[in-house]
Amino acid sequence: MNTTTFSQSWVNSTLYPFENKFLRLEAGNMHYVDEGKGETILFVHGTPTWSFLYRDFIKELSKEYRCIAIDHLGFGLSDKPDSVPGTPEWHARNLNEFIKKLDLNNITLVVHDFGGPIGLAAGIENNARINKVVLFNSWLWATEENKEAQKIDRVINSRVGKFMYLTMNFSPKVLLRQGFSNKKNLSKKVHQHYIKPFPDKVSRISLLKLAKALVGSSDWYQKQWEQLDLLATKEWLILWGTKDTFITMDSLKRWQEKLPNAKTEEIESGHFVQEESKEEAIRAIRIFMQEENK
């Protein structure tokens, strides 16, 4: 297995003013930030993002809490191994190892996008360590019958899909931007911080493998969904971007049916609520953290 670590010189220390930490996992070195003290908030990103997505959440919430944000292997500043499964279940095993090695407890788990199945699977495995859950637009159920997912899967598994992901760096350059309801909310400077972690074809393999898992890991998602009762008794906050064209309001309804006691805030935003409506989302999480468990 070849592992690639890239220079971090492109990271703007004003936008992302954190100490870089690394934890050696069986599969590679995982980059993370660990700021503040108090109850632990663990931030889990999806694709093609990294801990940078949560930078303003960490700046604000670390005044009162211990904020930990990881970069999945293959993303952000973590190692980019080129010959690993790269599936959500593989990423969940890495996160499980991370939680146990740092012996994290009383965790508020924050998840988004592919970080939903990854983070919630690790949360199910470590349910005694989880206190609360904050869910941004995500899913956790079988995808193989979803017609939109099937269309995407056909493209991703074609030669064209491979070219788009590995040669054009399509995911951070194009798809990420499409996830914004207002493209003006994505500045060039910020956009570069999502493009730069993937400078060549090898570094983009992780993006392609996770994209293939949208349908490829369908059975595994469903298995996690059926085990979600292990987390359903926790306190849940759902922060949902109502203008998300990737993971739509239909998915929100499914979560609400499964978690009738969850608090929900619908936010006028695209897929990346953390970028488009950060102040509103940070305020909601702060209020949620201050509430006593029932």
TrEMBL record:
Any Pfam family hit? Abhydrolase_1
Which residues belong to any copy of the AB hydrolase-1 domain? 40-276
Gene3D superfamilies annotated for this entry?
Answer: alpha/beta hydrolase
Q: Which residues form a coiled coil?
A: none
Keywords in alphabetical order: Hydrolase
**GO molecular function term, any single one:** hydrolase activity
- Can you say what this protein is called? Alpha/beta hydrolase
